[in-house]
Hints:
The protein is α+β, with helices and mostly antiparallel strands and 456 residues long. It has helices at 79-100, 111-122, 127-137, 145-156, 159-162, 188-198, 210-224, 319-325, 328-340, 361-365, 381-384; strands spanning 3-4, 11-20, 107-109, 171-181, 201-205, 242-255, 266-271, 277-289, 291-293, 297-303, 309-316, 343-350, 352-359, 389-402, 406-418, 425-430, 435-441, 447-453. The strands form 3 sheets. Strands 1, 2, 4, 5, 6, 13, 14 and 15 form an 8-stranded mixed sheet that branches. A 6-stranded antiparallel sheet has the order 3-18-17-11-10-9.
Amino acid sequence: MKLHKLLLTLGLVLSIALSACTPVVTDPVDLPDPDQSEEPIVDKEPIQDKYPVEVEPIIDPSQVTIGNQVHITNPEAKLEDIEKLAQANNQFALALYKQLTDEQGNLIYSPFSIYQALMMTYAGAESETAQQMMAALGVKEIEDVHNVMNALNLTLQDPTTMDVPGVQRLIFNIANALWVQKDFHFEQSFLDKLSANYAAGVRLVDFNYPQDVQKLINHWVAFETNDKIKDIIPDGMLTEMTRLVLSNAVYFKGAWNNRFDAKDTAKAPFTLMDGTTIDVDMMAASMQTAGIMNDDFSAVVLPYEGGNFAMALVMPKDFEAYQKALDAEVLSKLFADLSMSHAMVHLKMPKFKTETTFDLGKTLNGIGMGDAFDKDKADFSGMTGEKDLYISDVIHKAFIDVNEEGTEAAAATIVGMSTTSMPAEELTINLDNPFIYMIYNTQTNAIVFMGQVVNP
Length: 456
């Protein structure tokens, strides 16, 4: 598929825009009054010390309204189901990776953000559309899946794992919102499901003025991603026929548990896919961590301070062959092997910063949810009570910045719906060839960001 690159910062945001098949619908649902807002947007708490986060609030909290159902902050979900959903997210991540690597370039995306936005869309799907989305999202065997999604979100954001005395706080924020056309009917059960399980507040807007709404949503995305993802909705995407935008924003910033010293960073050769070499800024450090070196690949885990997150980096001997072979079984074995390894690793790796933008419509269509994109077949009657919506656009935008201090990441996706112990060994790992990386939660192995570096 066509891969477009834009200048962004490390991060992830996901949005879904939906438009109505019919321009006029009567009997509107009693949506909350935006003048009676009780749900403020709270400034993000900054990381202190050497790796600060600067946040400037740019959304007026009075624009936020609340639904009839408050967010459930203590969902009852089995650990087994949470782990199943994390695995489903990872399978989705790998399916996307296969599609997004058609062009051999640097890559960053947030499968977790895309997955969550589609889960919110799935909440309003019915009949064959729901069956296709259920299969593509891998949630057929998970009961009360939206409740489990809520539990997974809360697990990943557990403050008790991030607020550790004496260490720098890790930030992982998830934000959801619904932007709905005023006076258009939406099923209250759909709105309540998203507010209860996704903390998605409702914003009443008027898509008859699409440019104004575009600016409003873009501002929300920028705010929720620490101003790293800008202008996610392009000109012309929203129209007078748009009826709903579901937005999900994910923002990550963490310092390495073992920092790299900037004075040890030096120019060194990096081999590109075609065999040529370039000089890049190569960081260097020695640390006790999980590491693997075998005939197929070298891999290392870099934990983040103050939270249950880490980055896994894998440099295959045959990059293209490993890409093709990478599936859920290979990934599961990789995580298992890494969890059992402990070594003194002398690591060299490049600093890198990557920004990418994708039009995911054809990609998602190709992984089994075609009806959702067909205005003659789509059934999102769970949202409106009628078969009057279909997905017209899916756009994803992401950024990552990896340096001596740590990692910052953010991303955005727009789905538009239109009418109709001690080290046992010592390893020297030099990531001087193309490699794959994943930021994941070490409790569930849920991948929140994934990408590759072929040209730092």
